[in-house]
Design goal:
Layout lengths: L7 E7 L6 H22 L6 E10 L2 E8 L15 H12 L3 E6 L4 E7 L13
Parallel strand pairs: 1-2
Antiparallel strand pairs: 2-3, 3-5, 4-5
Helix pairs in contact: 1-2
The structure holds adenosine-5'-triphosphate and magnesium ion (MG).
Adenosine-5'-triphosphate (ATP) binds next to helix 1 and helix 2.
Length: 128
Amino acid sequence: MIHDPEQLSLDVTADESVVKPNVSVSLGLIVTELVINALKHAFPDGRTGKIVVDYHARGPNWSLSVTDNGVGMPQDPADARPGLGTSIVEALARQLDAVVQVAAAHPGTAVTVARSQIAAVRPTAEAV
Ligand SMILES: Nc1ncnc2c1ncn2[C@@H]1O[C@H](COP(=O)(O)OP(=O)(O)OP(=O)(O)O)[C@@H](O)[C@H]1O
Ligand SMILES: [Mg+2]
């Protein structure tokens, strides 16, 4: 997919956490769409750059991000019209109880899909 590592590099960092098979399939589909987006849209005209994928989890919560240092999302909303990819990522994130955030990375774009459930706090014996 990347012919010249001098032109474009892909770095992946992930912790040792384990998820259920159905969750890993959804995470894989999300990563695929976001990395393809970076390859397709972030580096036009032979621009060089870097894509970084990070995944880490803590208890039931996790965060998956794909960041590039490309041209950034189009300024004109008409050019940034959501395609099928955006709908798929949103739908998969919803299934996983996660939220999608798209931010400017100066330069580039950072897309984070994160599940951040607040743990239920059980009252302690003294508090009851
Ligand atoms: N990493 C990125 N850098 C710059 N622009 C982006 C990036 N990711 C998405 N975009 C912009 O957001 C638009 C919507 O992305 P989306 O994935 O929904 O659709 P698409 O990639 O154009 O088509 P599809 O995903 O259906 O093949 C893109 O057309 C592009 O303009
Ligand atoms: Mg896309």
